[in-house]
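example protein:
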Amino acid sequence: MTPSFLRRSLLVATVCGVSAAVLSPLSAQAATTTLRGNVTYRERMALPPSVVEVRLLDISLADAKAPVLARTSLRATRQVPIPFTLKFNRALLKAGHSYALEATIFVEGRPWFITTTQNPVRAGNTSNITLVLSRTSASATASPIGTWKAERLGDAPVTESGKAPTVSIEEDGTVSGFSGCNRVRSKATLEGATITFGPMMTTRMACLPQAMATEQLFLKNMEATRGWHLAPTGDVLALVDAQDKPTVVFRRQPDAASEGASNKATPASGNPATDTQPAQITPTPR
């Protein structure tokens, strides 16, 4: 093998290696499509601090719920129009299918503005999209604000209705209620369709083993919560984790005050708790 042949071989290998290194990122970029546009509304009103969520839907099946292919959320730092950028993998698109965009503006976790008309995504128009939203009633039934009683903890139903955990979520994010054994309080942070809870602070009463097990699972699942879904009827609230799996499923309660505040904890001896001293609130051990 001659030196000149070796030099030519090395040159070809080097050129091929550079081409692969350059084409790979270009191919990855080509597989991603970016949609750019603005979200606005016609009402003459100032927008308070809010979160804007834009979603790409497959609207091909008329009688089925349109699946969400991609979504993006952003905190609004200005008045409308609010610019958005939505990136998605073009491999998700299927030949012969139709696609559209929808958007929601959330204020304190409530949908204040939503798209009410179809906004189809057309080839060649990926950077000049305007989504015009309409005002909703922004009622309490469209948010997790309210008083709720747990019916399921993850996949497990709450079997003792009298010992079911309850929570009240206030407008300012204050959370109070009953954990299945003790009184509990925390702080919720709402941003659009996401919700997280701070440390769950509880009283320190001893309860029967089943109540203690319910409490531990409830507190663990609450701290794992990252989002929420509300039934169309507004009476069932599902908290979900980062993988969108249910952590706690609640049913709305008519009373504004948490039912947990009136529950009496039962110590391991089986006798009702009679301590009348103010309850000591401590962080739940992690």
About this structure: Residues 3-30 form the longest helix (28 residues). Confidence is low (pLDDT under 50) at residues 3-29, 256-286.
